[in-house]
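Batch manifest, entry 17 of 40.
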Amino acid sequence: MCGRYATTRSSADLSSIFEAYDETSGSVRPDYNVAPTDPVPIVRVAEETGARVLTVARWGLIPFWAKDHRVGARMINARAETVMTTRAYARSFERRRCLVPADGWYEWARRPAGKQAYFMTAPDLVFAGIWSTGADRLSFSVLTTASAGPLAEVHDRMPLLLPRDRWAEWLTATASDGLLTPASPEYLSTVEIRAVGPAVGDVRNDGPDLIAPIDDGLLF
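Output type: structure tokens
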């Protein structure tokens, strides 16, 4: 599960990192507490030109056949194990995959002292995503997979992470072979698990303090 994350890089930075044409018109803003239905940047391939574009999309995929955008609030994540066979996601997985830039994602775990929030972060973090234009809105879902290594101590699900050398394949591959392979243990070892304060639990809160490590947060 990925239900909250942070994305704070500027459109200029993202356009440069992903070698993508910026279609955001300056609408990208730092957001340390992205919640379902929020507008955030994604990188996709424009169907008209075949070029990479940086676009703002709504988090929560609205299937191509949907008439009501409200269904997207329930479709923020797509399980990697079933994305190719689930009606709402299969068409997007086949034709409309995207990169979702992130600084990191949040999860909560029960500890002896109560519920503890964690922030998982790594340089150039990218989630595998799929997009759609249902209900005349550009929207997307984040693919999730089983957690591995220390990350499994926080939550049993995590985003499907894409190292830099898999970005191009995810966007353009015509065959599904290998696309859903989880990130390697070596790559996952670069992900920092950081205990953070409880303020992130309120979607109204924002700012860099949300991702600051706390000294008294138990990791495991």
